[in-house]
Amino acid sequence: MAYDEGLAERIRQHLGGDPDVAEKRMFGGIAFLLHGNMAVGVTGDDLMVRVGPDATDAALARPGARLFDMTGRPMRGWVVVDSSALAEDATLGEWIDEGYGFAAGLPPK
C-alpha cells in the first residue's frame, strides 16, 4: 500500500529534524519512532497516532478520528485520523505533538 508522501513530509517539517526520531516502514506506510517507540505514522492518506489507552476516548471525540484497526481487533491507545481533518498545519501539529508526547514517556527500546 502506498502512503501519502506529502503528509509524511509535513510530519518531517513539524518534527524539525529531531535526531531522536527515526523513520521506519510499517503497516504498509511509514512510522516515526522516538527512541524506538512509534509516535505517529502515515498509512494510505491517513495519520496514525499513538495516544495511549488513557487518552483514547478523548482522541476519538476529535474530528476525523477513529480507532486503529487493521486486523479486525481494534487497538486501544492508537487512533487513525482521516486526511480530511488534517488540512490545517496547526491541527496536524497537535496530533503529532500528542503522539510524540506519549512516546516520550515510554522507556527507549
Q: Any chance you could write out the topology, listing elements then pairs?
A:
Blueprint lengths: L4 H11 L5 E6 L2 E6 L2 E7 L2 E5 L5 H5 L4 E4 L6 E7 L7 H16 L5
Antiparallel strand pairs: 1-2, 2-3, 3-4, 4-6, 5-6
Helix pairs in contact: 1-3
Main beta sheet = 6 strands, antiparallel
Helix content: 25-40%
Number of E-state strands: 6
Proportion of beta-strand residues: 25-35%
- What is the CATH C-level name? Alpha Beta
Structural class: alpha+beta
Rounded mean pLDDT score: 95
Low-pLDDT runs = none
Order of helices and strands: HEEEEHEEH
Total count of domains: 1
Sum up the overall morphology in one term.
globular
Query: How large is the radius of gyration?
Result: 13 Å
CATH structural architecture: Alpha-Beta Complex
The strands making up the biggest β-sheet line up spatially as: 1-2-3-4-6-5
InterPro entries: TfoX_N
Pfam families: TfoX_N (PF04993)
Domain TfoX N-terminal: 19-102
Protein name: TfoX/Sxy family protein
Would you kindly provide a written description of the structure presented here, covering whatever features stand out?
Helix 1 (5-15) crosses helix 3 (89-104). The termini are far apart. Strand 1 and strand 2 form a beta hairpin. The chain has helices spanning 5-15, 56-60, 89-104; strands spanning 21-26, 29-34, 37-43, 46-50, 65-68, 75-81. The chain has a six-stranded antiparallel β-sheet. The model has no long low-confidence stretch (mean pLDDT 95). The protein is built from three helices and six strands. The protein has one domain (5-104): Aspartate Aminotransferase, domain 1 (Alpha-Beta Complex). The protein has 109 residues and is of the alpha+beta class. The longest helix has 16 residues, at 89-104. Helices cover 29% and strands 32% of the residues.
